[in-house]
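Hello again,

I reread your note about wanting to compare the complex against the isolated chains. To keep things tidy I'm splitting this into two emails, and this first one only covers the full assembly. Below are the input lines as submitted, including protein chains and any nucleic acid or small-molecule components. They are followed by the predicted structure of everything together. The single-chain runs will come separately.
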Amino acid sequence: MMKTTNALRRAAQAARSRLSDATLAWGVGALALLGSSAARAVNDLPGGPAVNQVDLHPAVTRIAAEQQWLHNFMLVICTVIFVGVFGVMFYSIVKHRRSKGAKPANFHESTTVEIAWTVVPFLIVIAMALPATKAVVAMKDTTNADLTIKATGYQWKWGYDYVKGEGEGIAFVSTLDAAQRAMSDAGRPEGDNYLLKVDNPLVVPVDKKVRIITTANDVIHAWMIPAFGVKQDAIPGFVRDAWFRAEHVGDYYGQCAELCGKEHAYMPIHVKVLSQQDYAAWVEGKKKELSAKADDPKKVWELDALVARGSQVYAANCAACHQANGKGAGPIKPLDASPVVLDADKNKQIHVVLNGQNNGAMPAWKQLSDTEIAAVITYTKNNWSNKTGQIVQPADVVAQRQ
Amino acid sequence: MSAVLEPHGHAGHGHDEAHAHPHGWQRWLFATNHKDIGTLYLLFSLTMLMVGGILALGIRAELFKPGLQLVNPELFNQLTTMHGLIMVFGAIMPAFVGFANWMVPLQIGASDMAFARMNNFSFWLLIPAAVMLVGSFFMPGGAPAAGWTLYAPLTLQMGPSMDAGIFAMHIMGASSIMGSINIIVTILNMRAPGMTLMKMPLFCWTWLITAYLLIAVMPVLAGAITMTLTDRHFGTTFFNPAGGGDPVMYQHIFWFFGHPEVYIMILPAFGIVSAIIPAFARKRLFGYTSMVYATASIAILSFIVWAHHMFTTGMPVTGQLFFMYATMLIAIPTGVKVFNWIATMWRGSMTFETPMLFAVGFLFVFTMGGFTGLILSVAPIDIQLQDTYYVVAHFHYVLVAGSLFSMFAGYYYWSPKWTGVMYDEARGKIHFWGSLITFNLTFFPMHFLGLAGMPRRYADYPMQFADFNMVASIGAFGFGLMQVYFILFVVVPAARGQGAKASQKPWEAAEGLEWEVPSPAPFHTFENPPKLNAAATKVIG
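Full-complex prediction:
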């Protein structure tokens, strides 16, 4: 008897473990299938989004902490009211059903009740508005900044100018990493900082009040860093400002937050917060680098060198619309065999590049240096099927700027 | 042909045959009957719902995984823009006008709308507008791609489809204004004797107030888009800073229209739900007077809150504070309405046929959207959430789970009157639960995405956002499938007359003059003003 029972027990155990093995195998298989499509597994990005993040980013500034507090405060109140009100409703749904034999009551109005449930919510709303008011006033106070930086939104990148404070005079453009942009087109995204990596991050010192002045070159953009609690529209022709005081060293990320055209998703913001010493070192290094790179607009260039330089400028600025093959697409005019490009009068093309065309559909590129504009025009005049042999020198561009 | 309250002798019917009940394509092209025009509006909006839905599925298909798989970013921006424009102007607004056309004359005991021919024009204007709007995809450069809000100066860069879109919106605006005039004149002048304003169904009140909102703000939208048009082509620089213009002024003008617009899209929903809950709780609507005042308060307040869409544009402190306070205030009359609906249910005797399921579902899910709206109204929080998926979640909760669910509720409630047959209750329940679950699957994760900082109108995104996007996309396809199910297995059979014959009043505790006429409602009803009981709910004698 015992032997049979034991045998039975062992058989049952074996069967169960086979079943659980099978379930395990199916489960893992399913997960693997699901996971294999997201096989490029991703981790949290410190200073940026966390995987499956469900709340605001941990605060790096007092303002962000205040926003987080306010949000939690609102959530708690709303949840309590929600549970209360719908608890009553679900109770009613269960108890006051005809199938349970409930008979309908007769009441259909009560002034007292109406007053009560108007006044009480009114008081709750006032309670919500009070701490919020404090935060609004604090967020708007951009006075007494230690460092002032202008952030200009372009289609489709950010330009930073250090306007006042340590680092004054430094200026550079910050563009999404080209390899990541190509990954997007190819449908093969990769990396914890996918679509957040730039060539030149904005660098600021820790524990200093940084005032960000926003403006734009073409359409409305918006500059945001969730970790700082900052978001400000960048409006062409106008200046706005916002401020932050980062309390921790690190890398922080944001993205453009106002629809600005086709590359709206591809103009991220990367702010590097450094210790005071590291920041001072960076400022020195950057100033040296920028003065070394600065082009002399009086220089007379050889064709090959200028074309080579122009090809870089083209890739960074023009290829997004006019395509690497110069053929454009849809309303975007081709440059290959373009009459403006082939024209013997160089000033025609210089004019278009400097001032734009078609209400800004072709934007103005005044912000590029004379050398860069001269190089890219020369490149277009001597690339693809265009073989004009023309050279546009930086001095030609300087002349047209008058 | 007089449409007002004149006795219609039988002798005259010989030569009136063609008018009495027209047939064929002429019946529809020259329709002046409020029921036919209501049907036309509803069919039109159902079609546009499907078109807008396909665009949404295009968006969600692309966002299913990070990286670009299906569309390029320009096309993606066109999809998001057109999804918004088509749903707002092609699906939600005309559907509510369809409900108004069908139900308002019936509910007030009038024979038809005040201006029957203008009614026809209001509807047929929508067809060329829709053709232009949808056809803009095929114009050079594709459809407009500046977001449904059409902010300047981005709109100045768009191709010719922007002009087509502007023209289409002008036409739709004219249609709405004419329809609203019709509704106001009808309600104020053609109520049956004894039906005072404070005795008419709440659905008529909500539409009366909505009609005033429409007349007030559609011209403002027309102004904004006309200025955009002249900036694009006629040398003005209203919004172009290069000429001294101000892009933010566009936003002020647009949102002065835009905020009342969203209340235009929800007030009729409140009216529908206010008819259904009392019917299925077998208990009168609680606090009728309060509900009327609450609706009017919401409408008036809606004019002074517009800049809560602009908290990040850089307005001064006083502005931020004012708009924050005013917006938070709207929560109060809205809350009052929710409490009144629940008080209607309380100690009622409820059954949960499909109209009630959708009405209660509306109550639950719309209120969630209301809470996220309250959270967004707190300006410091809005700075984090503006232009992120949190906003997308909020407005889909109030517009889909709000407006659309109320329309489904209204369809199931009134379709026996329209078609003469009962819908299949099991299928209605499948439609409800399927829609509720897939809707939440689609839009709830978006709250998390927004809190985590994922911006809107993005064709591609950092990989940490992938899982929630995948869930949302799966939910979206499920939701779309449920609506296809609704059309094929609920609407089409009813249109074909398949189903149990509907009685005059299939809902035992329903109240209203629409239940005093046969099902389906005859072509002409209340040709003579009916004699009403004291409560103006029944026809006597």
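For quick reference: The radius of gyration of chain A is 31 Å.

B.
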